[in-house]
Amino acid sequence: IHNMVFSSSDHASQLVAGEIADLIKNKKDKGENCVLGLATGSSPINVYAELVRLHKEEGLSFENVISFNLDEYWPMDEDNVQSYHYFMHEHLFNHINIKPENINIPNGKIPQEKIIEYCLAYEAKIKDVGGLDFQLLGIGRTGHIGFNEPGSHYNSGTRMITLDHLTRADAAPSFHGISNVPKKAITMGISTVRSARRIVLLAWGQNKAEVIKETIEGEVSPSVPATYLQKHKNTSFILDTGAASELT
Ligand code: F6R
């Protein structure tokens, strides 16, 4: 699917899940693995719900899927309900037949002195399995993709970052207060995301309208890292009418 504005994010999510399912099946027919880059947050929830339905009701198999999540808070225990590790199992992995050893999520408990080495290994593992076939993205109000906050370099790789104040404020309700939101995270970089052969960014609701306008119509700039996607040849922006409402 190409850039598109939908009146219902549910319907849009079903189409995106359908594209992912077709990719998984095509790869399977060729005897190949399908490497998926996955996002957390509210935006992809219905895509995952539809993938679970396709697995349960239509026999979609995830046996040939290898997944890499974009990011994780740091420090963060994987069994903490706020962790992205927990989120992914709750919304997707616990309900499908992906092999546990094929699931990759940045480790929020990696000791500080091992972070650089750990991030390089995460990056190397993506390359070793053939690179990302498909990257699913949401977008933060700062213009972040993954947790690549304003200032992120076009050629950045997987690394530890400091979360923007606005990002922490947006996460505050689910952490019962901004003081409980971690100050750091591990994220795939802009170059990691750009290396994906296909990218689909989801944005729903009026509160994303301003950043979506900047992302699609603004100048490419590190101050809105999502604008880097303008240079990627196979990216689609999937929006609802609220998120698209500021576009000219
Ligand atoms: C999540 C991620 C973030 C979110 C973004 C939007 O893994 O990388 O970039 O996609 O913060 O979050 P929601 O979808 O909750 O509005």
UniProtKB/TrEMBL annotation:
Its gene is nagB
Residues included from the entire protein = 27 to 274 of 644
| Protein name in UniProt | Glucosamine-6-phosphate deaminase
Please spell out the taxonomic lineage of the organism that makes this protein.
Bacteria, Pseudomonadati, Bacteroidota, Flavobacteriia, Flavobacteriales
Where does the chain cross the membrane? none
Residue ranges of every copy of the Glucosamine/galactosamine-6-phosphate isomerase domain listed in the record: 9-234
Which species does this protein come from?
Answer: Christiangramia antarctica
